[in-house]
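FAQ
Q: What does a multi-component entry look like?
A: The components come first, one per line:
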Amino acid sequence: MIYKRSSALFAEAEKVIPGGVNSPVRAFNGVGGTPIFVREAKGAYLYDEDGNRLIDYINSWGPMILGHAHESVVNAVIEKAKKGTSFGMPTEIETQIAELAVSMVPNIDKIRFVNSGTEACMSAVRLARGFTGKDKIIKFAGCYHGHSDSFLIQAGSGASTFGTPNSPGVTKGTAKDTLLANYNDIENVRALIEANANEIACVIIEPVAGNMGCIPPAKGFLEALRAVCTANNILLIFDEVMTGFRLAKGGAQELYDINADIVCFGKVIGGGLPVGAFAARNEIMNYLAPIGPVYQAGTLSGNPLAMAAGLAMLTELNNKPEIFTSLAEKTAYLHEGIAKVLTENNITHTINRVGSMISIHFDEAEVVDFNSAAKGNNDTFKAFFHGLLNEGVYIAPSAFETWFITDALSYEDLDFTIAAINTVAKTL
Ligand code: KE4
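Then the predicted structure of the entire assembly, as tokens:
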């Protein structure tokens, strides 16, 4: 594959945008080389600026669950844009998508829309602190909840890829209120709660981790977390920015039958436009301005174009719940095919999968937390990434990410991908 035009565009971008990108994980720092510039996308495919067609396993880091440029989403945005793009005043469509989201997701009465997953998680933590009157939070090493200061403490995703999990610019004052636990280690959580009795407002977790590769919750872990939070008057926040409207209509709460106190959304809920949201029962959400004391705001929150895209997306998913089964089946098929060819080629690996989230780790040990995820052979991953790119398959440019399967993928695409992995495996 030739990437001449992408390289030229990247050189131009670097002159006026830090690192040439508007989000670090796109910069290929985790795999080397320079980023691919996309011209357009349709269904399961990206078309880059050099005319290469790539099968997309990132799908804008999750939102494109139905494939790129989905007709109902695009048409909804076009029609809405003709009537104006932003008013800073309430619109009916905000109520329509709020009612639909509340009907799809268990255990929530109200939802507040914001513009990103970061904003959703940041606001949820502030709400938890305001509601409980306590300051400290527990997050898990390797989990990523966006780039708000409180979260950049051994974060996952790009922060891990960069090997600088604790970012400069985060004050000691902020960091002291963030306690770090190990994913899937309930005893570690209990010890933190005991050592900080009556000081912890919330535990925030990715119920299925997706920012250190895909890591499922160990059997009983989420149930134990729910119980220990309830027993200690600590709010449990499910960061479902990745898992929401992806693992099931009702996300991880539905899949694992666990009730969080606050749920955060992003990605799919916006259909590819900038939307985040956080939701909870009335008792908690009524603590938010303008009816409650916890302030949270946004000029473009509930923006009509973004709401139109999100409403179209959620309507598709709500009307065709069989999509979730189709996504899980396609991902299982891919898993089986990848495992077969990597084993045949004697490549040491493990594969983690939940629903339509999957990740490959080039290490024999089971990947259950940040430490085990970090043991993966990154040189093998880099060669694997570029080998696949050369075969026309685009996966996450970092070992600390999950793949996101889109329902636009055909079984032919999956077979093509498995064959490409077989080819690349022979070079590793
Ligand atoms: P955003 O602010 O990027 O919309 O959402 C932050 C966020 C919150 N919670 C979870 C579980 C997330 O995965 C994310 C963002 N995910 C990354 C990819 N791992 C976004 C890609 C990027 O940073 O460019």
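Q: Is there any commentary attached?
A: Sometimes. For this entry: Residues 322-344 form the longest helix (23 residues).
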